[in-house]
């Protein structure tokens, strides 16, 4: 009876202790999973030596991180960088791909079947052999949206630089031979113009938002289907032919796919207005560059601004660079400190989620 009484009066304390223990476990188990104690045996390869430290830390908190000692771009990337990746990738569960260089079957073969996720630190993923990743049952993630504002700013910059003839004007300043006179170096107005966006995705929408202070008369866009966001942006869905025929400014903001490859060609350039300014912030291969050269040279269209070309870098003696009505940038769309950091962190968090059984933040539909 005494024992029974003793147990009975300790009962509330036991319940409290049990509850504390239970809550403790509830907190501790996910922590173990997310602070990496249980995932440290997984290896993640970072493909380039210029990955931001904040993103590296996200990966290091969870996994064993291997990082290439080389830049995964240009000559270094395709020689030393490639060899290093092939050496480091066997046994890795995820690959952070920082590069515009292609991922190859050789890399995937060297990795082994435990490679589950490729996380490209870019919005575009045409260089990531998506069909092959799908065939191998791997997942692919990219970094859309975080870069839309930065790329849209470059698109606006290209619209202004091409329409106000920055290439030839800068050349005049450098040569010290300014064309003077009331009707010299005249450009085209954005005011009261029609701006056509090929692909009203995140970047296309950000371009429209940024141009809203320029008194543009009409925004039109083409694509597979109408976008729900278009209404708030006062953008009108039209066929691609209507867009080409009616726009004073045309911005290509679509990914490179089999369908969009060379979509700007002799025929489509032929549909543009003589005052049209064409801007490309997507991928170089959207454009048949010989046809663009002819259209600019013959003044069939007014000017063009490109952030992307084929190849990259464009050789300095490339015929496109002889054109006074072309303004070219070296693919800097997403190149701001904040944007590159956010892209890198998103890529890292995709891997954390993917390897700890949580939903991917920005999966590519394969
Ligand atoms: C991308 O992320 O696809 C951009 O082109 C990189 O600047």
TrEMBL record:
Xref: InterPro entries: D-isomer_2-hydroxyacid_DH, D-isomer_2_OHA_DH_cat_dom, D-isomer_DH_CS, D-isomer_DH_NAD-bd, NAD(P)-bd_dom_sf
Keywords from the UniProt entry: Oxidoreductase
Residue ranges of every copy of the D-isomer specific 2-hydroxyacid dehydrogenase catalytic domain listed in the record: 50-364
Any Gene Ontology CC annotation: cytosol
GO terms, molecular function: glyoxylate reductase (NADPH) activity; hydroxypyruvate reductase (NADH) activity; NAD binding
A matching Pfam family: 2-Hacid_dh
Domain spans labelled D-isomer specific 2-hydroxyacid dehydrogenase NAD-binding: 156-333
Lipid metabolism listed as a keyword: no
Gene3D superfamilies recorded: NAD(P)-binding Rossmann-like Domain
Keyword Oxidoreductase set for record: yes
PANTHER family: 2-HYDROXYACID DEHYDROGENASE-RELATED, FI03731P-RELATED
Similarity-based family: Belongs to the D-isomer specific 2-hydroxyacid dehydrogenase family.
Name of the featured protein: Glyoxylate reductase/hydroxypyruvate reductase
Protein species of origin: Bombyx mandarina
């Amino acid at each position: 009876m005494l024992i029974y009484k003793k147990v009975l009066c300790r009962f509330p304390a036991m319940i409290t202790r049990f509850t504390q223990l239970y809550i403790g476990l509830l907190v501790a188990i996910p922590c173990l999973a997310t602070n990496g104690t249980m995932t440290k045996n997984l290896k993640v390869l970072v493909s380039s030596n210029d990955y931001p430290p904040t993103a590296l830390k996200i990966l290091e908190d969870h996994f064993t991180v291997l990082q290439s000692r080389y830049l995964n771009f240009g000559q270094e990337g395709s020689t030393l960088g490639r060899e290093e990746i092939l050496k480091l990738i066997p046994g890795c569960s995820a690959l952070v791909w920082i590069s515009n260089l292609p991922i190859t079957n050789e890399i995937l073969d060297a990795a082994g079947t435990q490679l589950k996720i490729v996380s490209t630190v870019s919005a575009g993923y045409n260089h990531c052999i998506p069909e092959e990743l799908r065939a191998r049952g791997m997942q692919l993630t990219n970094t859309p949206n975080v870069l839309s504002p930065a790329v849209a700013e470059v698109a606006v910059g290209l619209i202004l630089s091409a329409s106000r003839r920055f290439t030839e004007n800068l050349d005049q300043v450098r040569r010290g031979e300014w064309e003077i006179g009331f009707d010299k170096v005249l450009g085209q107005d954005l005011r009261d113009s029609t701006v056509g966006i090929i692909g009203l995705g995140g970047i296309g929408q950000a371009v429209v938002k940024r141009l809203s202070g320029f008194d543009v008369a009409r925004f039109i866009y083409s694509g597979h289907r109408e976008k729900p966001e278009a209404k708030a942006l006062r953008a009108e869905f039209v066929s691609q032919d209507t867009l080409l025929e009616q726009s004073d400014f045309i911005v290509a903001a679509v990914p490179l796919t089999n369908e969009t490859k060379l979509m700007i060609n002799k025929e489509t350039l032929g549909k543009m207005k003589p005052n049209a300014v064409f801007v490309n912030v997507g991928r170089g291969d959207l454009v048949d560059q010989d046809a663009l050269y002819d259209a600019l040279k013959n003044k069939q269209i007014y000017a063009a601004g490109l952030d992307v070309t084929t190849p990259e870098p464009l050789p300095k003696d490339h015929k496109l660079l002889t054109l006074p009505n072309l303004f070219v940038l070296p693919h800097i769309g997403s190149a701001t400190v904040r944007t590159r950091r956010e892209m890198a962190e998103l890529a890292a968090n995709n891997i954390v989620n993917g390897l700890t059984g949580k939903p991917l933040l920005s999966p590519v539909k394969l």
